[in-house]
Structures are given as structure tokens and as C-alpha cells.
Amino acid sequence: MRNGMNGLGCGRRGGSGMLATVGVALIAAGLILLFACIPGWAWAALAGLALIVAGYVLIRLEAGR
């Protein structure tokens, strides 16, 4: 192990913790905006699509037995 690094990426940059915190904050802000701006009918359409996919997966699992 060179330069005291343990190979896991720890200690490469001093400000990486701050960058990760800012990244998480940006992701959270984006998710809040996404949830606030998508109208109700779109959520219902996404839920319907999820149910269709889940049913298809269950049928495929049953057919594989």
C-alpha cells in the first residue's frame, strides 16, 4: 500500500466529504422539485405502469417453475 492509502479511496482528496454533502443536497432538491411538479394524473399513470410490469414479472416467474 503506497502513501498510506488502504485501496478503498479514503484519503484521496481532503474536500471529498464536502462534495458528497453538496451532491446529496442537490439530489434531494431535485427530488423535491420532481415530486412537486409532476401532476396527479402522471403519478396515476406511473402507478398503472408499475402494476403492469409487476404482473408481467409474476407471470414470468410462475411460467419459469
Tags for this entry?
65 residues, mainly alpha, 2 helices
Contiguous low-pLDDT stretches (5 residues minimum) are none
Discrete helix count: 2
Number of strands: 0
**Gyration radius, in Å:** 22 Å
- What is the distance, rounded to the nearest whole angstrom, between the alpha carbons of the first and last residues? 49 Å
User: What is the 3D shape?
Assistant: flat
Main β-sheet description? none
The fraction of residues in strands falls at under 5%
Structural class: mainly alpha
What is the average of the pLDDT values? 81
Oligomer: single chain
Order of helices and strands: HH
Helix fraction, binned, reads over 70%
SSE inventory with pairings:
Layout: H1 16-37, H2 40-63
What does this structure look like?
- With 65 residues, the protein is mainly alpha-helical.
- The chain has two helices and no strands.
- The protein is flat.
- The mean pLDDT is 81.
Briefly characterize the structure.
The chain is mainly alpha-helical and 65 residues long.
